[in-house]
Amino acid sequence: MASIPIPRRYHRIVYLPSKHDDSHLEVLLSIPTTISSTSPQLYTGVVIAHPYGPLGGSYNNNVVGALLQWFETQPLQVKSEETGNVNLSSSTRESRKTSSVPLECVIAAFNFRGSGKSKGKTSWTGEAERQDYQTVVDFLQSGTRATPLGASTERHDSGTGTPASTKVYDETGEEIDPPRLPSMSRFILAGFSYGGLVASTIPPPLRFTASPESGHLPTSYIFVSYPAGVAWFLTTGYQGSFFQRAKTILLGENIPSDSNSDGTIPKPSTAKVEAFFISGSEDQFTSPTTLMNWLKINAGMSPPASQNNAGPASWAVTRPDGAIHVEVLDGVDHFWLDKEQKLLGALKNWWNDCHPVS
Description:
The chain has helices at residues 62-73, 90-95, 127-140, 194-199, 231-234, 239-250, 288-299, 305-308, 340-354; strands at residues 9-17, 24-32, 42-49, 76-79, 100-110, 168-169, 175-176, 184-192, 219-224, 273-280, 315-318, 324-329. The chain is α/β, with parallel strands linked by helices. The strands form two sheets. Strands 1, 2, 3, 4, 5, 8, 9, 10, 11 and 12 form a ten-stranded mixed sheet that branches. It has a two-stranded antiparallel ribbon with strand order 6-7. It starts with 8 loop residues before the first strand and ends with a helix. 44% of the residues are buried. Residues 147-167 are annotated as: Disordered.
């Protein structure tokens, strides 16, 4: 008799109280079935955010769904030195520097307030949605130790210095047992359109959530159709604060934090940050020229010569330090309908180029 295959993942919908006002947020979790306390597997927390809710955005979007499936099925690998795993001895870390390790993704696609079955209403400024996104990041990191071994066990969230809630609810508002989550060795923060605008303001999670001095986990940002040209509309004129937060992250300045009045933690960031911007040559809301002008100011990038000389509609450019890569695909508009495979192909190439393994 043939054996029944064991599912590699399970999906579960839970509701998390937003850090902003406790509005319950609908979160679709995709969790590996192999999680155990003794597993040597390294886990990556992935958060995916959707386009603007009042215009029909939700996690049922075509791009969000494509990204979710890609992270579920794509075998991602990095060099062991890129994992943020500090529980190894220095000699062991040194011996493993050139080895590659697979990353198992714990994925959360969520609905911002007012979208899907999430409670609340879309805010005017986007600040509430920023807290919604941070809520999901903090939840994924709730399985990670708050402090190094032997230190205080007080738990804070991933980057803002305030207590992180691990309470979980069902659709009726009844509190339920939370799913078992592993310790995360790195994060991938992604967003499509408005979701990318919000994601660009979220600081890399702390290595130990109650110990800012421990530094930040390696974090990758993925921005699909970043709406730089219409951010003023999406935030009703408050785009400046969003852009400043994004700039500090993309330029490797002090990581923004809500715990200090000046928006920074009191020491330079130790985060290893990389970002992938991908857009279409026919984007209706942010042209490639507008995107590159924004990146010049906020990420220290220069446009490729082909763009300046009216070259091919498809082009790519990487910042000299390799941390930020921008790709524009010919014949693609803002929405990626029937173009999802082009997106995923470019994403795969970028990841493999950034994380070559032997």
